[in-house]
Design brief:
alpha/beta; 7-stranded mixed sheet; two-stranded antiparallel sheet; 18 helices; binds tryptophan
Length: about 375
């Protein structure tokens, strides 16, 4: 079978960009990022291997999850009967938006396809230490709020452990300090771009994000492979983890990386910091969702006449990006949308209306599941 692996970005001159877990600047060139970070692209062979386990998720077919470390090895081990565990996380600093849900929906797909356990870390400590305006009480409260959104996605309670760092620290601490002893300040400074003004908690933090890679191994008393689905901005943490893992007696964690979902303003990362009007929160009301979609940045022309003549530019349109990342899983329909936009047949108003209907269907249903999640949260949490 063959998959269409076209490269999204044309290799024209682009402004400098920087990607770290603590901020994204400039316009990200994801092909350049793979080279810079030293990861590998998910190629045809890997897609074919993944397709043997279940229908390929649209985020794989469309190269939204597009990069990896040691994914072949994870599949080799799985094929030999040695199951991996999944590990991902959330920095609980505020409400959940659709860009956050994207990699978690994919994580749920992996859990379903491979029937594997998931460790889900809530870094209430991290967000407290990195954000001047947040108290520890607030980040803990957000962690519990955010857990409802995670549970609403339908993770299997039998196979999913969610924990807050501040509540699971007794289990994690011995491994955290073993990790910390192997990481130099100069590495942290270089990898995250820190300077003398960063507080010492933030310098230590990467050792806390390292530990969950090994929780299953710690629990079982043997080395268990671990696969981390995450936004590629988190890779710097795990590069450090991978350097020290074997020295601690564990396997290096494998990774599968996603591109960052664009905001409705058209920038690369959908972030709460780009403004509440350009992100859709899972708790937004219908009229708010409608307004945000209708106000979104598009690849439309200055006038309807111009657009009918020249066509729209779907590849720079945030509305098209939403269809592509999340809301139009059917490749045929997505291609039709792309063609109809490019030919000037489909105008922005109609396209936004279609998107709004899909987004609201999803959000409305999600809100119901989120309410139900309140009854079962305890089945998911692990604490010391
Ligand atoms: N640091 C991440 C954030 O700020 C949260 C996180 C913790 C995470 N562990 C992870 C994300 C593992 C991906 C994978 O959002």
């Amino acid at each position: 079978m063959s998959y269409n692996l076209t490269v999204d970005s044309v290799n024209e001159e682009k402004e400098e960009f920087v990607v770290t877990p603590y901020g994204v600047q400039g316009e990200v060139d994801y092909d350049v990022l793979v080279e810079r970070f030293g990861t590998k692209r998910i190629d045809q062979d890997l897609l074919a291997r993944l397709a043997k386990h279940g229908p390929l998720h649209h985020m794989l077919r469309r190269q939204i999850f597009y990069s990896q470390r040691d994914l072949e090895w994870i599949l080799d081990e799985y094929d030999k009967g040695n199951k991996f565990v999944l590990y991902t996380g959330r920095g609980p600093s505020g409400p959940i938006h659709l860009g956050h849900l994207m990699p978690w929906a994919f994580t749920k797909y992996l859990q379903d396809v491979f029937k594997v356990k998931l460790w889900f870390q809530m870094t209430d400590d991290e967000k407290f230490m990195f954000y001047e305006h947040l108290t520890l009480e607030e980040t803990k409260r957000w962690a519990y709020e955010n857990a409802l959104d995670i549970i609403a996605l339908g993770f299997d309670p039998e196979l999913t452990n969610i924990f807050l760092d501040s509540e699971y620290i007794k289990t994690m601490y011995p491994t955290a300090i073993r990790a910390a002893k192997k990481i130099n300040f100069s590495t942290i400074r270089a990898v995250f771009g820190f300077d003398n003004s960063n507080n010492i908690g933030s310098i230590f933090f990467t050792s806390i994000q390292t530990v969950p890679c090994f929780l299953e191994s710690m629990e079982q008393g043997r080395k268990v492979p671990c696969l981390i689905p995450c936004g590629i901005d988190q890779d710097p943490h795990f590069r450090i983890t991978r350097d020290i893992a074997e020295g601690l007696g564990y396997y290096k964690p494998a990774l599968i990386h996603a591109k960052l979902m664009p905001s409705l303003a058209g920038s690369e990362k959908m972030s709460t910091s780009t403004g509440a009007d350009t992100t859709i929160f899972t708790t937004d009301e219908m009229k708010t969702v409608r307004r945000k979609v209708m106000d979104a940045f598009t690849g439309g022309r200055v006038s309807v006449d111009e657009q009918k003549k020249l066509g729209g530019e779907p590849d720079m349109c945030s509305v098209y990006a939403y269809h592509k990342y999340f809301f139009e899983p059917d490749d045929g329909k997505l291609a039709q949308l792309h063609a109809d936009c490019g030919s000037g047949k489909l105008l922005c108003g109609e396209c936004k209306q279609r998107l709004f209907e899909k987004v609201w269907d999803f959000v409305d249903e999600h809100q119901r599941k989120r309410e139900k999640a309140k009854d079962i949260v305890d089945e998911f949490f692990v604490r010391d």
